[in-house]
Amino acid sequence: MPFAFGRGCRKGCVPVRRAVVFTDLDGTLLDARTYSFDPALPALGMLRERHVPVVICSSKTRAEIEHYRAKLRNADPFISENGGAVFVPHGYFRADAVSPARPEGGDEGPHLVLRLGARYQDLRRALRELRGEGFDVRGFGDMTAEEIAAATGLPLNEAVMAAKREFDEPFLFGGDAVMGDKLRASIERKGFRVTQGLFHHILGESDKGKAVSILTGMFRREYGEVTTVALGDSPNDLPMLQAVDRPIIVEKHGGGYDRVLVAEDFDRARGAGPDGWNSAIMRLLKDL
């Protein structure tokens, strides 16, 4: 599956380096309130014309991402639930490009699935234990689809998809900063981690950066040198941004950038959500 800028370069011209774009969804490619990606359509069209892969790397579930991949007409690999698993369409890479990276996994429907995250039932058990310790926590597994829709602003059909967790449990936390520190310490004692996007998330040792590195290895074994790009807006995007050549942060809804990401030396897109995403990709295409 070709994906180079400047295909058809004749002898004597300077070839343009191949690129792969990794992107968060909520608040990045998707508007934080409406979940629309319409402002990013010009850049998405340019990437499609140049056969540049757009790899979704999100806290969303497999079902949610497949829903948006269909809307986006995207056929590239994707990463679900904050790096919980890597999904590679069958035949996308040669077998020898995939095999060196195989952690636990196997064929599931149209994809090879590389499982990196904790088991969901273990995360649910840890959340119940936290409530027993006095922490005010409520995960998606404790909510009806209607409650998830109310908490997220998702349409009901997408809230149903959001409840189909496999590797990561988003949860609401009712506590101050002091209790937050205690919560984090308790989660870590149980052998898990906590991160934050639109919600708090409890997860295992997987993260977006590890999953991105695995996929980057596949692209490089298949095609040689590539330039990797990532766009995100929240602390749970930090490992992904640190794992690529060109990290870009987009503004939050209402203006400004996440303070955790601002502390890093990342490029900053002009605009929030898909507006910022579009402007950043258009600038990137000029650079490349």
Key structural traits:
22% strand; globular; alpha/beta; 36% helix; four-stranded antiparallel β-sheet; single chain; 288 residues
The SSE order reads EHEHEEHEEHEHHEHEEHEHEHEH
CATH topology of the largest domain: Rossmann fold
What's the mean pLDDT score? 90
CATH architectural arrangement of the largest domain: 3-Layer(aba) Sandwich
Helical content stands at: 25-40%
- Computed over alpha carbons, the radius of gyration is 19 Å
Q: Give the full name of the CATH homologous superfamily of the largest domain.
A: HAD superfamily/HAD-like
CA distance, first residue to last residue: 20 Å
Content-based structural category: alpha/beta
- CATH classification, class level of the largest domain: Alpha Beta
Q: Give a short account of the largest sheet.
A: 9 strands, mixed
Strand content: 15-25%
Oligomer type: single chain
- Widest sheet, order of strands: 5-6-4-3-2-1-11-12-13
Shape: globular
Uncertain ranges: 1-16
What do you see in this structure?
- This protein has 288 residues and is of the alpha/beta class.
- The chain has 2 domains: 18-117 and 207-287, HAD superfamily/HAD-like (Rossmann fold, 3-Layer(aba) Sandwich), CATH 3.40.50; 120-203, Threonyl-tRNA Synthetase, Chain A, domain 2.
- Helices cover 36% and strands 22% of the residues.
- The protein has 11 helices and 13 strands.
- The strands form 2 sheets. Strands 5-6-4-3-2-1-11-12-13 form a 9-stranded mixed sheet, with helices on both faces.
- α5 (145-152) packs across α6 (156-162).
- The model is unreliable at 1-16 (pLDDT under 50).
